[in-house]
Amino acid sequence: MAQNSREIQGAIAATRFGLGAKPGEIEQASADPQAWLIRQIRPEGADQPGGALPSGKEAVIALNEYQQNRQELRKEGIAPAPGRKARAAAAQAEMAKSGDDASMSAMTMQAQAKPTDPQADAIAKVRQDLRKSLGPEILERTRLACATDASFRERWTLFWCNHFTVATVKLTSAVTAGPFEREAIRPHVFGRFEDMLVASTRHPGMLFYLDQAQSIGPNSQAGQRRKAGLNENLAREILELHTLGADSGYTQADVTEFARALTGWSMGYARGGLRFGGEPGEFFYRDNTHEPGTRYVMGRRYGPTGERQAREILHDIANDPRTAKRIARKIAVHFVADDPPQSLVDRLDKAWTGSGGKLDVVARALVEAPEAWDPQPQKFKTPYELIVSGYRAPGFQPSGFEQLNILTLMGHRPLSAPSPKGWSDQAAEWAGADAIVKRLEWAKGFSAKVGPLVDPKAIAKSSLGARLGQRTELAVNRAESRQEALAVLLMSPEFQRR
Questions:
Q1: Distances (CA, A) of 398 to 113, 449, 482
Q2: Which residue has better confidence, 386 or 103?
């Protein structure tokens, strides 16, 4: 391999496969770019974020306590203190009735100032604290991405976290989304896909997010005693998003049958010091909520085997060739191009099917694929990737969650995907005019703080290596200040793409 080619591939290894180069990293990777990446693949899975973050069990226990206290207040006729959205909705309703802006303003102020029961205030404070736990979760997750020496391993992990999205759209998933990634995804990223699929399906984060915890078979023992219904959310998203894909040929009847098979898949919980169905926050199968009978999904018969029924369906769809083909393409899209070469997709598909869905084999096939090393950068960084690579370039990390608030303004707040589909990997979603303006605002703000502390000329070379173009290098060198030079680098085409 020629020297220049090796240097380019070292830059590609750190900036395309990885999350952006730290000082000295491209030089390390350039010695043997493929070997540098392959060493990051390990059977024990991904690294875990630091900090004292709650486990899924601890999160569910805290959630159970909040729910119990809130329920007791309701029984006593005390409503918990309304949140900001509830107060705003009440204000709008009053305005619509009266049509008097002045009187509405006074009424809104009175509603906000009205004293509430101390117990209700305390419960509202607990809810607020539960949601605040997201801040440390996002911060530690991002600090790991900024600091890791194995950024290919972390990028690979973040791909799977997005594939099995759990978003913080409601309190129950807000407190379990972080533990979900740490417990259901990170340990399995280089294991069998089937194991990750099962772990994600059984975790309280997913059970809460897609409402599986409240799905009850109508003809089950519990369903016959009380009004309860079947919830098809989890079954549908497993078929459409986690495995086969919307164009795989499954029908609504398949979704319903799969949802029936999944009834009973729940978790333990605690109320008043008592446990119901095993350890709180851990998977528990409730036979009394399982819909009895034989199921037929995608033309296959599954006998009345209780918990095993859904497990057998998961096994079959995890190992279905359509799942391999679909996710192989999704991996190629994430790492290489919005419209990846079919030959690359075929390589990944072959590695998947040939290994029985072993993700370490698929990751190695990606690293060894010549199509993945095209010198022309095809991918436009998402806001999260941009901020992470921005911190990595000088070797820094965010010290507080407030430094990541810009991700909310840029529409890419971690753990907050807009739907179970996860975040888009397509440039069109992130390259609009308003989005570019926000990137520029971030680059200026970041450079104002970091620029005076570093040498932007050195960072340009260490963060991009052989990918640094003459025009960008010249613009950095001619900038009037270190602050301006760093901002120019961060907004350059080479830095914005990977």
A1: 37, 12, 20
A2: 386
